[in-house]
Amino acid sequence: MTGARAEGLRERGESLFTGRFALFAECLLTGVWIALASLPLVTYPAAFAAGARHLGRRLAHERGGLREFAADFRSALRGGWLVGLAGWAALAVVWVDVRAVRAGLPGGALVAAVGVFALIAAVVAGLRAAAEWRPGASWRSLLARAGRRTVLDPAGSFLIVGGLAVVVCSAWFSAPLALPVLGAVVAAAVAVEERYRHR
Predict the structure, then answer these.
(1) What sections of the protein cross the membrane (predicted)?
(2) How far apart are CA 27 and CA 187, in angstroms?
(3) Mean pLDDT across the stretch 128-151?
(4) Which of 21, 53, 64, 196 could pair with 57 as two cysteines, CB 3.0-4.6 Å apart?
């Protein structure tokens, strides 16, 4: 009896480990898909949204693979490319602010700090919006709600910033490592949104 119970516990432990490792591997694969879908530069919001949907299906034990990811990507791209364009514009503004600081513009340091902080908040809101995206959803309303959650849930936002820091460190260590780690950032955003819904 004791031996059978120990064997059952061991099998459950192995099953739990196998399931978690499979989810981790799926996150890394999703990161590669996101990186490839983001190559046109303005498509990254749609790529993150499709990645979040894919991981959501995986967590719900639903069937889905590259074909479903591609279908979600095409659907999210309808309004997502404008969000991507706006993101690059915001990055350009912050870059100009940082250049102004280096040129010695009076008050430039404060403006640059505010700009960098706002850019980080915008990235977090964008990831939270992508994690909530569903086919047919309006990016404008998704971003408005995600912006509120970014402020109202600082702990969740900080977790996403931590995920972004891991991507930056991975890219600094070895650029190819940053690609699969993008999936872990999306997984963090999905988990943060689930946590916020259950609060």
Answers:
(1) 32-55, 76-96, 108-130, 151-173
(2) 7
(3) 96
(4) 64
CB half-sphere exposure, 184, CA atoms < 13 A: 20
Residue 59 neighbours by CB under 8 Å, 6+ apart: 23, 190
Nearest residue to 189 via CA among 134, 133, 107, 130: 130
Burial class (CB in 10 A: 0-12, 13-18, 19+), 181: buried
Please write the tens of the pLDDT for every residue from 6-26: 555 455 555 666 667 788 889
Range of the domain at 33: 2-198
Residue tagged 């983001």 (tokens): 38
